[in-house]
Design brief:
14 strands; alpha/beta; 9 helices
Length: 324
């Protein structure tokens, strides 16, 4: 059974929080490419989802520094200097200088002691963090088991933290990269509740995806970059029309930033199957209540859609795993 480890940010946690559950894959039973229910065993349609809550910020691992930055208290010790005191002349000046030298010597000894204590406390803290990271990694891998593949997904806010890099040096699992595989695309397709579809971009199994939704389609518009168009797509569009009695409105757009200039005028709610990595697709012309299925799970795209407040419902695998 494959395992997805999903890491999310929770600033209230004081230690890693691990939740394990078994998820069932949806199987649409399409004609090509994707396996039908009779061809897929029960175990093949299940996977383990391990949700792990972290509290990371910059170099802080659950509030404890794991980086090379010198703490303020240690920096203060290093920068402490005794002020030079003017000395008198003669015997009184000599006695004053002796007392001052003794005082400076005591201060240096005390400063060195405080510094050693601070460094010892830092080593103790790093050792404690190391043990916590090791326990967390072992606990996750134990729950993942040894059967199937194990990969991780991480929220953007965590990945930007220096403490995350420290964690990854101890958690030797590959990052999940299967968003556009048939089995994972299928997890989002049941959320396409409208009869009108807009397909943006493409993927290796795009024909099976479109055919899997054919029985629910009343209209479909497919928009591609010019460089992704092939004559075989025209053949597919013609075959689809003959098979299902529905014409696909195929459109190509030019340029590297083609989807940024795209104008989607949808007066009725639609399902948008988005296979692009473009985060700045204009959405002002899309009807309220439309469903946006982000197949590559871009958090930036999610933020842009939510910020515009257009009433578009956004879904992705990351969102699914975040909600648990």
């Amino acid at each position: 059974m494959n395992t997805i480890v999903y890491f999310y940010q929770n600033r209230e946690l004081r230690e890693p929080e691990i939740d394990v559950r078994t998820e069932h894959r949806v199987n649409m039973g399409t004609r090509d490419g994707l396996r039908t229910g009779s061809e897929s065993g029960h175990k093949d349609r299940e996977y383990t989802l391990i949700r792990v809550g972290f509290n990371l910020e910059g170099e802080l691992w659950f509030g404890q520094c794991v980086g090379q930055t010198v703490p303020e208290e240690t920096q203060a010790i290093l920068e402490t200097e005794e002020p030079d005191m003017p000395c008198k002349k003669g015997i009184f000046g000599l006695l004053q200088r002796i007392r001052q030298e003794r005082r400076e010597m005591r201060c240096r000894v005390e400063r060195q002691l405080r510094l050693e204590q601070a460094l010892a406390a830092r080593e103790e803290r790093l050792e404690r963090i190391e043990k916590q990271m090791r326990r967390a990694a072992e606990g996750i891998l134990k729950r993942a088991g040894t059967e199937g593949e194990c990969s991780y997904v991480c929220e953007d806010t965590l990945m930007k933290c220096a403490a995350w890099q420290e964690w990854m040096s101890r958690f030797h699992v590959k990052e999940f990269d299967g968003y556009l595989q048939d089995a994972w695309i299928e997890q989002l397709l049941p959320l396409a509740v409208h009869p009108r579809f807009v397909v943006l971009g493409s993927c290796e199994g795009i024909r099976a995806v479109i055919e899997g939704c054919a029985h629910r389609m009343k209209a479909v518009r497919w928009i591609l970059k010019e460089q992704d168009y092939t004559p075989e797509l025209t053949d597919f569009v013609e075959e689809f029309c003959e098979e299902y009695g529905l014409a696909i409105a195929l459109q190509t757009v030019p340029g590297r930033a083609a989807f940024r200039k795209l104008r989607l005028d949808c007066t009725e709610p639609v399902n948008i199957l988005d296979f692009t990595e473009e985060t700045a697709i204009p959405i002002s012309g899309i009807a309220e209540g439309s469903v946006w299925l982000d197949m590559v799970s871009s958090e930036e795209k999610k933020r842009r859609i939510a910020w515009r407040g257009t009433g578009i419902r956004y879904f992705s695998l990351k969102e699914k795993w975040k909600r648990g």
